[in-house]
Design a protein that fits this description.
This protein is α/β, with parallel strands linked by helices. Helix content is 37%, strand content 25%.
Length: 279
């Protein structure tokens, strides 16, 4: 059973009606993901990455074909059954963090455990364990407004892992981060994957994320056009190139130094524009 697929898609099709036309977001996608994978769905905007992630996460259903997650056919689940699958087995990391601003870091991370009915003592233990993982135990009583962008994404990672899910789905997790913080959160996710065996699946077009992947699945116009294993020989070279590029981009121009100091420097909020449309 160790090599059994946690996730399978079979002839998966997703079609969205667009007035008198149809948009084929996914077209006969066949993929398997096993325990412990660190894989990425890669492609340009509109290639179907996020649509596939949403179906795997039981947030959407296929038009045709099948998506089997933890032995459950997503297309056959009721809303309650889909919610139960997500709550028990799947963690989500989004590009916009989605932290609740009126609650502390501890309370934001604790929220998934409340849905699962853990006791107060067990919740405290699991939350502090998750915050230790992301090196933020000392910020447990802080609120999101007091955090940098990198810290906010690390809280989002802690919230995703606190219930120890089998699968974590990360949709453009570095999109709102600067280069240094991107590598910090990717290293944390890589360590979690290696030490816990949690399956990570990313939707991304960020070269920094791609440099960490052990499997790269390229989608174009809703079709899988390439499925590559990133060998250990290729990974260090790709990481080095991405990190060198990030360092070059991170060097502030003299005219921006004062502004960077006022906003917390390159490790500040690190935010960009809106999250954009469906990818």
């Amino acid at each position: 059973m160790e090599n059994a697929a946690l996730i399978q898609t079979k002839d998966l099709v997703k079609i969205y009606p667009m007035g008198s036309h149809e948009l084929v977001a996914l077209n006969n996608v066949n993929l398997d993901f096993k325990k412990g994978e660190f894989a990425g769905l890669v492609g340009p905007s509109g290639s179907g990455k996020t649509t596939l992630l949403n179906i795997v996460g039981s947030l959407d259903s296929p038009t045709r074909g099948s998506a089997i997650v933890m032995g459950k056919k997503v297309e056959e689940l009721s809303h309650k059954q889909a919610a139960r699958l997500r709550n028990s087995h799947i963690g989500f990391i989004f590009q916009t963090f989605n932290l609740l601003p009126v609650y502390t870091v501890f309370e934001n991370v604790e929220f998934p455990l409340l849905l699962l009915g853990f006791s107060p003592a067990e919740r405290k233990r699991l939350v502090m364990e998750a915050l230790d993982w992301v090196r933020l135990a000392d910020r447990a009583r802080s609120r999101p407004a007091q955090l940098s962008g990198g810290e906010s994404q690390r809280v989002a990672i802690a919230r995703a892992i606190v219930k120890k899910p089998a699968i974590i789905l990360a949709d453009e997790p570095t999109a709102n981060l600067d280069a240094e913080n991107s590598h910090n959160v990717l290293q944390i996710m890589e360590e979690l994957n290696q030490e816990t065996g949690t399956t990570f699946i990313f939707a991304t077009h960020d070269e920094k994320v791609i440099s960490y992947l052990r499997r790269k699945i390229t989608l174009i116009d809703g079709r899988v056009v390439r499925d590559e294993v990133m060998t250990p020989e290729r990974q260090p070279e790709a990481k080095a190139q991405a990190q060198a590029q990030a360092q070059a981009q991170a060097k502030p121009s003299p005219g921006r130094t004062e502004q960077a100091e006022e906003t917390g420097g390159p490790g500040g909020t690190g935010t960009r524009g809106g999250s954009g449309g469906r990818r």
